[in-house]
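Bench log, entry 3. Co-assembly request; chain sequences pasted below exactly as received.
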Amino acid sequence: MLVNNFLLLGAVLFCIGVYGVIARKNAVMVLMSIELILNSVNLNLLAFNQLWAKDNPGHVDGNTFALYIIAIAAAEVGVGLAMVLLIFRNRKSISLDELSEMKG
Amino acid sequence: MFLAEEAGATVAAGWFLEHAWLIPVIPAVSFAIIILFGKKLPMKGAEVGIASMMAGLVLATGLTYQWIVHVRGAAEAEPVIKSWVWWQSGGMKFGLGQHIDGLAVMALLLVTFISTLVQIYSVEYVRDDRRYTHFFAAMTLFSAGMLAMVSAENMVQFILGWEIMGLCSFLLIGHWWEERANSEAALKAFLTVRVGDIGLLVGVAILFGASGTFSISGINAWAVSGQPSHSVLLWAAIALFIACIGKSGQFPLHTWLPDAMAGPTPVSSLLHSSTMVVAGVFLVARLYPVFHTGLDINVAGQQVNLIAVIGGITILIAAALAFVQNDIKKVLAYSTVSQLGYMMMGLGVGAWVPAVFHIFTHAFFKCCLFLCAGSVAHTGSHHSFDMKNDMGGLRKKMPITFGTWMVSTAALCGLPLVSGFFSKDEIIDGAKHNNYTVFFVIGLIGAFMTTAYMTRATYLTFFGKARGAAAGEHAHADDHAHAADAAPHRVEGSASDEAQRVSGQSEAEASHPRQQGFGWATESPLLIVGPLLILATLAIFSGYLNAAPFHIEKFHHWIESSIGVSLPEAAEFEWINAIPSITLVAAGFLVSLFLCRAVFGEADSKLKGLTERSRLLGAGHRFLVNKYYLDDLYEKVIVHGVAHPIAQAAYWVNQHVIDATVDAFGRGGKRTGDWVYKNIDQRVVDGAVNGTGAAARGTGGALRPIQSGKVNQYGALLFSAAAIGALVLVIVNT
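Structure output for the full assembly:
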């Protein structure tokens, strides 16, 4: 079926997200990339649910998981953005390069 | 489900009826175009927005024509319903589609028409604005949301459109968000409406749970079938009505609407007079069978119901507030709230057709009034909306604006033979005819108050002596520091941002006619005056679609199939019944004129400064100026009252429960620790620890480079570890 296509799209989104997390210096962009990763996972869950529900009609477990992930992602972005906001207030910059106090 | 079979049966209905779904789709696509390419286009995106609105208008006009033919042809006009599956989940299908009947056709025509005019007007009004393209994008998306909502086939699509409008109103009210008051007004509008939106979700969930369908026609048929229990309908109706209270600015959630005047005037005109705020009224009209059955409207011996009561209260309190406003747009905002109260009351007393007709006529004259206010501020009073300090005497300087204002005011007050009369008086008549005596009286008092506050606003704006900016006190010729000059005259919010915006467009000022003193106020440019003239014409003549005195019932005939329940026959119109309201309108005009001349005129009068002298009147005035202290109630009592105890309780728990526990553990731990120290630590562990320490120091030194402090690098490590883990998993499993 079309499940392949969903999985491919999910993989592409995931890779874009990973690239963003690794390569971007802007904290907001990193947060957005994390969202991409989460949503690629959502896509996988939905696609597998579709595949599975063909034999077990009426089952929506994958969709339920996806809903949970959406809720968690919302909370995560809320906390993340609050942190970014505070960092910006204190340093007038949200570049991740400058946040290296944790250097050992 | 009404799927393809249904569509096949109605092919004969005509192309426009079949393709009404294009009307919301076109603006939605245009929104994307404006956002993506708008800034590169020659008119910065405005042309796309206007073109999409005009295309919508053409489609809606064709749709109206074919609907009229359709109604004439059939004894019982069937709605044209189409639906496509949007997504499905576990056997549940969610559709997008169209439900085209008289009500939807009227709303589609109205929204496309008003949006077209307002966008044309905006080209001049927000010229050279900082976020010109975004302004048009948000306006277009807003129209798309409203159009999707009014043509919704099911409640999911309805909610979608409803929320798009909520978002766009936030964007547009806060269009000049650099000013703190504006962004606060935008937040307030958004959050207040959200409070009501919970009701919409709950109501739709109740309806879906009980009826098993989201389809609007399905729900309406189900509600009158006698199958659902009364309490289910009652709770669904109450929940949905809470959403209407929020969206349509009914008491007690009306507080956001006047603050929302902080947005640019075209926004006020489009969102907060004629389209978005009628969404709540539209919801009640759309699902009228649910409300009618659930709230026992028109049941014999029943004198009050929730909708009529809320509507009635709103009429009176909003009209009273309109008397103490100095900002011309806020007068109009409260007037809108009050007129929405009329619509709600009309629906509450079973006068469905007059209420919907009032939506129709009100849109034209209220839109016109707002645009007049914008025209005055744009050209006449130097971007100030303060009637007391910056206007007056503009009658001669701006004859067209003045004329259109007077016509629309006459329509709003319900003077005989203009449009407001035919709709508002029918609502009042309906209340009387259906034995809702209390609401009949409220309607009459409301008519009196409407005339009185509009007379006051008209007098302050157009008559008397020119004051402040209208008299050219800080005219252009001085210097460009006028934005700062205007500061003392600012009313909260809306006036100041207009002034602030000016400072950002000083080059454009050069093209303004520069004249000294009183003479500089002239008529506005054609792009502003044109829409005014069109709207004023409609403010007079739109009423003749359903003029009871002349036995014209076209509108009634076109739209009655949307009601869904059988209502009592409307009363036969007699002029004798209209006499009380006409008398009261005249009385309101005369009383208000007398008071205005005494209080604001040049001649000395005992009435001047009365509110300072008389303690009782002063207290009443203060009560109104503070908007019944409702804002204080919400912010200081409810928000503070909820947030403060939570913080207190959390602190108490922290101090007494968590700390005490921790302390107890700490004491116990210390005692144990002492013993362990003496017996085990010193003797056994130390040796081992020293060895481990040395090992750890070595490892730490080796791992130090990894701990770079660079977040990206941590991310990379995390993902490589996960990738290796995944690889291992795959290898092990195969």
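Chain B touches chain A through 16 residues (CB under 8 Å). Chain B has a mean pLDDT of 78.
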